């Protein structure tokens, strides 16, 4: 029997900081997309973040894996956690608001429950979890709008692309648990980002002929932020919060991100969201809280139903 961790004041501050960092990333990605292509934006994100994390690996004196199977696992994780979702979401942000992208990004936790139940015996779906998942998907329908279920346009397609990215994130979580257990989180993140760069660099050169560079200080700062702070730095903070707060409490960051992204999108990018988006986020938030409550009960009682 394990006990749910209680959030200390420092853990709360770090959780809020992580939400702030990731919330601002949607705005900066959208700013960068005014100057670089979707594929180039992903190359910059994984490339600079990988360099930063390898510097930290070197400074800490951590061992670099040499087993080919570990690097195969990095490739799988890179595809599922970086290449696919980063590309799909960046393309989606060309056609929908950054705040809306952040709301849809919260569906990662809903898909994560379903994917974990599919692959791991200790993550079976309980009645409470099913209720949370149902509320989450009701939120998705509200965000996208019932009309998108009968006819697709470019905006609807962009929202589906973002949702596909969240599904990829969910599978990445299962892959990481299966193949990357026991590795230092910093080494695992650096390896995953390096594998992503090895995939994205030739793909972008073949598809576009070059890697776009930002043309203004604004674009340069946007790329520096989402690569070095919102990717490399956020990975480090993520695992720190995970150790302090536990996986259940860490899910709360999913509820912190959208309000920040929405506020920054309105302030900096002059975005305005449909009221249905706010209703959808409310249903998503309620679903996530139900899932989190279910996890707390399971941990406290030791039940596995």
Labels describing this entry:
single chain; 305 residues; mainly alpha; 11 helices; 0% strand; disordered C terminus
Can you describe this structure?
With 305 residues, the chain is mainly alpha-helical. Helix content is 79%, strand content 0%. The chain is built from 11 helices and no strands. The chain has one domain.
Quickly count the domains.
Answer: 1
User: Secondary-structure element order, as H and E?
Assistant: HHHHHHHHHHH
The helical percent reads: over 70%
- The beta-strand count equals 0
Q: How much is the radius of gyration in Å?
A: 19 Å
- Please report the distance between the alpha carbons of the first and last residues: 14 Å
Q: Return residue spans where pLDDT drops below 50 for at least 5 consecutive residues.
A: 297-305
* Percentage of β-strand residues: under 5%
Which sheet architecture does the biggest sheet show?
none
Label the structural class. mainly alpha
- Shape estimate: globular
Task: Please give a quick description of this structure.
This protein has 305 residues and is mainly α. It has helices spanning 9-32, 38-60, 68-93, 98-105, 107-119, 127-144, 154-179, 185-208, 217-250, 253-269, 275-301.
Any chance you could write out the topology, listing elements then pairs?
Elements: H1 9-32, H2 38-60, H3 68-93, H4 98-105, H5 107-119, H6 127-144, H7 154-179, H8 185-208, H9 217-250, H10 253-269, H11 275-301
């Amino acid at each position: 029997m394990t006990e749910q961790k209680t959030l200390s004041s420092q853990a709360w501050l770090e959780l809020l900081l992580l939400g702030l960092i990731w919330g601002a990333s949607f705005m900066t990605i959208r700013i960068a997309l005014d100057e670089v292509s979707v594929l180039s934006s992903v190359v910059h994100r994984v490339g600079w973040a990988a360099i930063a994390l390898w510097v930290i690996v070197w400074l800490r004196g951590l061992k670099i894996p040499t087993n080919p199977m570990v690097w195969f696992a990095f490739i799988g994780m890179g595809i599922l956690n970086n290449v696919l979702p980063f590309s799909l979401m960046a393309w989606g942000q060309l056609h929908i608001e950054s705040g809306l992208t952040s709301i849809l990004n919260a569906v990662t936790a809903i898909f994560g429950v379903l994917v974990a139940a599919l692959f791991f015996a200790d993550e079976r779906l309980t009645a409470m979890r099913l209720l949370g998942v149902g509320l989450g998907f009701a939120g998705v329908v509200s965000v996208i709008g019932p009309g998108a279920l009968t006819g697709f346009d470019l905006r609807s397609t962009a929202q589906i692309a973002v949702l596909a990215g969240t599904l990829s994130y969910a599978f990445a979580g299962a892959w990481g648990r299966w193949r990357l257990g026991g590795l230092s989180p910093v080494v695992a993140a650096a390896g995953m980002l390096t594998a992503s760069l090895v995939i994205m660099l030739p793909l972008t050169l073949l598809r576009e002929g070059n890697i776009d560079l930002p043309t203004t200080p604004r674009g340069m700062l946007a790329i520096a932020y989402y690569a070095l702070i919102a990717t490399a730095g956020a990975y480090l903070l993520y695992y720190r919060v995970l150790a302090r707060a536990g996986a259940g409490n860490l899910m709360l960051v999913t509820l912190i991100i959208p309000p920040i992204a929405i506020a920054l999108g309105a302030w900096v990018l002059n975005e305005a969201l449909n009221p249905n988006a706010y209703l959808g986020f409310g249903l998503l938030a309620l679903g996530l809280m139900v899932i989190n409550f279910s996890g707390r009960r399971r941990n406290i009682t030791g039940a596995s139903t």
